[in-house]
Amino acid sequence: MIVYGSSMSPFVRKVLTFAAEKGIEVELKPQGLQSDDPEFRAASPFGLMPAFRDGDFAISDSSAIVAYLEAIKPEPALIPAAPRSRAQAIWWDEVADTVFVNCMRKMFFNRVVLPIFLKREGDLAEAAHAEVHELPPLIDFLEARIPDSGFLVDDRLTLADIAMVQPFVNFLHVGASIDAERHPKVADYIAKIHARPSIAQWIAKERGFFEKAGNVPNR
Questions:
Q1: Around Cβ 85, how many Cβ atoms within 10 Å?
Q2: Coiled coil: which residue ranges (predicted)?
């Protein structure tokens, strides 16, 4: 099975983390923004990452890909079967992929993607506004909803957690840390999930890229 994209994308990293937690071996084939690689384009007609191929089956979109992985290997169950739990897990996946990623994108795109990868000046004012005014209410929201178990649904690891922690990797890459005094549950939650081997390996590789390149995202 092949995943096309870059692990610095929270959507690609979500698929890689999900596959690892399922015990499914996948190969990551790196792709840049709007890559014209024929294999990638065959799996992702609109050029969006991640794309995925399993033999003669190809599809794109992270949520569609993880649904496929869940179906071909039901255990361990990362998308709950019980109707209410399943709905909650899918809802959290959507919240992470839209609300949290939209905030993260303003910071990561302007501080990393534009200056480091595209060699263009980013809008640092937009990034700063997102960090100061948009991110704190989102973390407040999450702080109030993390159960004592430390997992968002069914007191165990599910797609909800795998999706939610992805944008926080990118927040950390641009220096947006979590105030453990103001948000102790979120700080503990993110640290615990990020320490899992399924995602820790990708965080380490991404940090290694910035260190090797000598690039520190602008703030």
A1: 17
A2: none
Q: Is residue 219 part of a domain?
A: no
Q: Could you give the percent of the chain with pLDDT greater than 90? A: 90
Considering the domain boundaries, does residue 77 fall inside one? no
In the block, residue with structure tokens 């005094």: 181
The model's pTM = 0.94
Cis peptide before 217 (omega within 30 of 0): no
Is 107 inside any structural domain?
yes
58 bridge partner residues: 53
- The reply to whether 78 falls in a domain is no
User: Which tens digits make up the pLDDT trace of 75-117?
Assistant: 999 999 999 999 999 999 999 999 999 999 999 999 999 998 8
Residue 112 and residue 22 share a domain: no
* Domain coverage including residue 150: 83-213
Strands 51-54 and 57-60, bridge-based pairing? antiparallel
How many H-runs (helices) and E-runs (strands) does the chain carry? Answer: 11, 4
- Of the candidates 17, 33, 4, 35, which has an alpha carbon nearest to the alpha carbon of residue 167? 17
Predicted local distance difference test score (pLDDT) of residue 118: 87
> pLDDT by residue (tens digit) across 97-108?
999 999 999 999
**Residue 35 confidence (pLDDT):** 87
Handedness of CA 85, 156, 65, 46 (dihedral sign): positive
Same-domain check for residues 186 and 145? yes
